[in-house]
Design brief:
This protein is α+β, with helices and mostly antiparallel strands. The chain folds into two domains: 3-336, BirA Bifunctional Protein, domain 2 (2-Layer Sandwich), CATH 3.30.930; 347-433, Anticodon-binding domain (Rossmann fold, 3-Layer(aba) Sandwich), CATH 3.40.50. Helix content is 31%, strand content 28%. The protein is built from twelve helices and 23 strands. Strands 3, 7, 8, 9, 10, 11, 12, 13 and 16 form a nine-stranded mixed beta sheet that branches. The longest helix has 22 residues, at 167-188. The two termini are 17 Å apart. The structure holds 5'-O-(N-(L-cysteinyl)-sulfamoyl)adenosine (5CA). 5'-O-(N-(L-cysteinyl)-sulfamoyl)adenosine (5CA) is lined by residues 109, 140, 142, 151-152, 155, 157, 159, 202, 281-284, 286, 314-316, 318, 320-321. Residues 109, 140, 142, 151-152, 155, 157, 159, 202, 281-284, 286, 314-316, 318, 320-321 line the site of 5'-O-(N-(L-cysteinyl)-sulfamoyl)adenosine.
Length: 434
């Protein structure tokens, strides 16, 4: 993209309404704009980041064997009456009526809808296990939407739902998702720790939250320093081996880790190397057995012809929250430092003297060579403003081209994360970036 013709409205001043650094940087770097309380529009740079995160989440869900679907945002109240959750869900649910006076809602989650879809399409135990997921906008009328996209009212979630014949099968599904989550967060460039958690309005008796450490996090968390040394290298564990899944689960759940609500003083006292701090919940997984399948009448014919009620779990990742959480984890005083995997563009090309034939020509060459992976700052602004915006926007690489270096087909290549700069040929710069 050419910055001179792009809608990337960066701000020099710190917006007064933003209390935490990720919110400030998302506004300043022109990623999002609030359109109503807790509701955001995603602008070109922000939308690219959101899609990059979504794609990594999708690839790891697919690798685990889950199948992608897309359920609607609007749901009928009748479905929620079948599970018994409609009245109890409270004011977080946005309820509305259509022109025929039918009660509808904007989905805060999809347990009921997916259970309904599954019961309509499945007959025999032979069709299980299955796991269905989608990446879709949710609405929760939070009392206090805050911190930008971190606690919004409308937000993007990946939610997966597993169906198994019994508890043992559901445990395997749960472990597969935990592995998929750890691989996802590792690819996104953040360390997340699974912590024993409360189940809240989703229900059930087994649940883990995935927490990224950050001083601005909403949860107080306690964990064993052993987590800092765990290597979740993707090669070691297979989704298809029960033994691997069991080993992985043991590795991830043996050291103590809990959020405030589930903190256990006796267990904590035994931890030798304690860590505590604030954390951001970027994912949450639940096993809840037949909490939804039973009242909603989901049954399949078992091997002996007798009906079996499937055991279910649900598994959420806060995709839009992750944009904020990643910035909390990766920034400095100058701005965002995007991990390579999610950056809106891999590189920015800074033309220090637009109008200078040599500069323009080399910039165009680099821009063409990077084919869609670059944001070309071709604006007629001062060099200083370009440097500041590139640092603010957090591109992993900056290719800086001025008239002097351009004459020798050389560029200055800057790595945002380390601040290192080197003068290299344009060819070497492109090779390094791609
Ligand atoms: N149905 C289950 C699992 S799919 C569920 O809804 N779980 S949840 O309530 O824990 O939400 C899943 C994830 O969505 C959370 O871990 C969090 O990362 C994200 N999330 C929840 N509420 C918000 C919100 N108001 N703004 C942004 N992200 C949110």
């Amino acid at each position: 993209m050419r910055l001179s013709r792009s809608f990337v409205p960066t701000l020099k001043e710190t917006p007064a309404e933003a209390q935490i650094v990720s919110h400030r940087l998302m506004l300043r770097a022109g990623l999002v704009r609030q359109t109503a309380a807790g509701i955001y529009a995603w602008l070109p740079a922000g939308w690219r980041v959101l899609q990059n995160i979504e794609q990594i989440v999708r690839e790891e869900q697919d690798a685990s064997g889950a199948q992608e679907i897309l359920m609607p945002t609007m749901q009928s109240a009748d479905l929620w009456r079948q599970s018994g959750r409609y009245d109890g869900y409270g004011q977080e649910m946005l309820r509305l009526k259509d022109r025929h006076d039918r009660e509808m809602l904007y989905g805060p989650t999809n347990e009921e809808m997916v259970t309904d879809l599954f019961r309509q399409g499945v007959k025999s135990y032979r069709e299980l296990p299955q796991n269905l997921y989608h990446i879709q906008w949710k609405f929760r009328d939070e009392v206090r939407p805050r911190f930008g996209v971190m606690r919004g009212r409308e937000f993007l979630m990946k939610d997966a739902y597993s169906f198994d014949l019994d508890h043992a099968g559901a445990v395997i599904a749960y472990r597969k998702m935990m592995l998929a989550y750890m691989r996802t967060f590792a690819r996104l460039g953040v360390q997340a720790i699974p912590m024993v958690a409360d189940t809240g309005p989703i229900g059930g008796d087994l649940s883990h939250e995935f927490i990224i450490l950050a001083p601005t996090g909403e949860s107080q968390v306690y964990f064993d320093a052993a987590f800092e040394k765990i290597d979740v290298s993707t090669a070691r564990y297979s989704f298809d081996s029960e033994q691997d899944l069991a080993d992985f689960y043991t590795t991830m759940t043996t050291p103590y880790a809990a959020t405030d609500e589930k903190h256990d003083a006796a267990a904590w006292a035994k931890v030798a190397d304690k860590r505590e701090g604030r954390g951001i919940e970027v994912g949450h997984i639940f096993y809840f057995g037949t909490t939804y399948s039973e009242p909603m009448g989901l049954k399949v014919a078992g091997p002996d012809g007798q009906p079996v009620i499937p055991h279910m779990g649900s598994y959420g990742i806060g995709v839009s929250r992750l944009v904020g959480a990643l910035i909390e984890a990766h920034h400095d005083d100058a701005g965002i430092i995007w991990p390579d995997a999610v950056a809106p563009w891999r590189a920015a090309i800074l033309n220090l003297k637009p109008g200078d034939t040599g500069c323009d020509r080399l910039c165009e060459e680099a821009y063409a060579g990077l084919g869609g992976n670059a944001l070309y700052d071709d604006r007629a602004d001062r060099a200083g403003a370009k440097f500041a915006d590139a640092d603010l926007m957090g591109h992993p690489w900056q290719i800086i081209i001025g008239p002097r270096s351009a004459a020798g087909r050389r560029v200055e290549l800057k790595r945002r994360s380390t601040g290192e700069r080197e003068e290299v040929s344009v060819e070497d710069a492109l090779a390094k970036i791609l």
